[in-house]
Design goal:
382 residues; 8-stranded antiparallel beta sheet; disordered N terminus
Length: 382
């Protein structure tokens, strides 16, 4: 496998030569202070930004995410991005000290950590996944029929963070899973429409850190759930606990096969290799993708070193990647894998490929960047 390294240091040099451009998120910043903004919304009787029932607008995001480790314990984290709307994802770097305004315009937030992530500028930039300078990573996936956000209340002392901006918020605020687990109950997770689907996206999240452990975040009707993820896999609906229980239906699936069986004195032999995998689901539903990814991750030969780990990660994700035309939405659009990305959390390095460009590219987060506290695009993925 060939890798093309696109290092941030090179981009910073290009930036100095005015050959790279800064893309700042076009935030609609209110002139109110957080207190003034809350008071104004309260006086106007505005206590929520959307209804808490989240609908997908006919475009389910069918993604799969995975966390795995090398035989030496090196942590890797990644995902497929499956969507039926055309995306134009870019690779961004957000500096430590970068300040941004939340969707409601009530709070100014300052990044405590530098991070790199894949996102799209829909005014503002919305991140789908990323890794920060401390090796903390996050990704967002669709969760239709189950996501249930907070109803915004101006009297609630917790700052409101839109579900769409939660990945960027966590990457800029947390160094570990424990920090994220402590921070999440202190915010309101609210919904807001995005300009791509013109709907409120029903979402849940997977987070990981350099320890190699990961957690799932699900905001449902019965509250906030922050769950340990011992299998290291996440897809879409139903909820994560259901997926874990569902794995018990596939305990019979094994890498090896029985060499021979006898039925009523008739000897039976397998047609070939792979008989042990009979019953492994092959469709593209969230439960099937979860089971397939979990089985492959659990039984693959443990990779040694970064090169083998990246190779293994992309091979596993090929089993859940969706070609165009195989899954059609109610709008008549193809839901397909637009990009696949993995991160080496120890090296703070991205590896990614797109639907139209199968060569894996790489970008590494610089240890001591020399640029202002801003957000910068390194360019589109394809």
């Amino acid at each position: 496998m060939r890798f093309v390294a696109v290092f941030l240091i090179l981009w910073l040099c290009l930036l100095c030569n005015h050959q790279a451009s800064l893309l700042l998120p076009k935030m609609q910043i209110e002139t109110f202070s957080p207190m003034e903004r809350s008071h104004t919304m309260e006086k106007e009787g505005i206590y929520m930004t959307i209804v808490s029932d989240c609908r997908d607008g006919g475009g389910f995001l069918m993604c799969t995410a995975m966390a795995m480790q090398t035989s030496q314990g090196g942590p890797f984290f990644g995902r497929t991005m499956d969507f039926s709307y055309p995306l134009e994802p870019e690779l961004y770097i957000a500096a430590k000290g970068y300040e941004w305004i939340n969707t409601l315009g009530t709070h100014k937030i300052c990044n405590q950590f530098q991070f790199m992530g894949i996102g799209q500028n829909i005014s503002p930039v919305v991140f789908a996944d990323g890794v920060n300078e401390r090796g903390f990573a996050a990704a967002v996936l669709y969760f239709p029929g189950y996501a249930h956000y907070d109803i915004y209340n101006a009297r609630d002392p917790r700052q409101p963070i839109a579900a769409l901006e939660l990945v960027g918020f966590l990457l800029g605020s947390c160094a570990t899973l424990d920090q994220a687990a402590s921070l999440l109950p202190t915010i309101q997770i609210i919904g807001s429409k995005d300009s791509v689907t013109n709907s409120v996206a029903p979402l849940h999240w997977i987070i990981a850190d350099e320890s190699g452990q990961c957690k799932v975040i699900e905001k449902m009707a019965d509250g906030l759930h922050i769950l340990d993820n011992p299998i290291g896999i996440l897809s879409n609906s139903p909820d994560f606990s259901w997926h874990l229980t569902n794995l018990r239906n596939y305990m019979n699936v094994v890498p090896s096969q029985q060499p021979e069986a006898v039925w009523s004195s008739v000897p039976l032999t397998p047609f070939g290799q792979g008989g042990g995998s009979m019953g492994l689901p092959g469709d593209y539903t969230p439960p099937a993708r979860f089971v397939r990814a979990a089985y492959l991750k659990s039984h693959i030969q443990p990779p040694t070193g970064q090169l083998e780990a990246v190779n293994a990660c992309f091979h596993i994700m090929e089993s859940v990647s969706i070609p165009k035309g195989i899954v059609i939405t109610s709008r008549g659009a193809s839901d397909y894998t637009q990009y696949t990305a993995f991160m080496d959390l120890g090296a703070k390095q991205y590896f990614f490929k797109t639907y139209d460009h199968s060569q894996i590219l790489s970008a590494k987060l610089a240890e001591n960047p020399h640029f202002d506290a801003k957000m910068m695009s390194l360019g589109k993925l394809s």
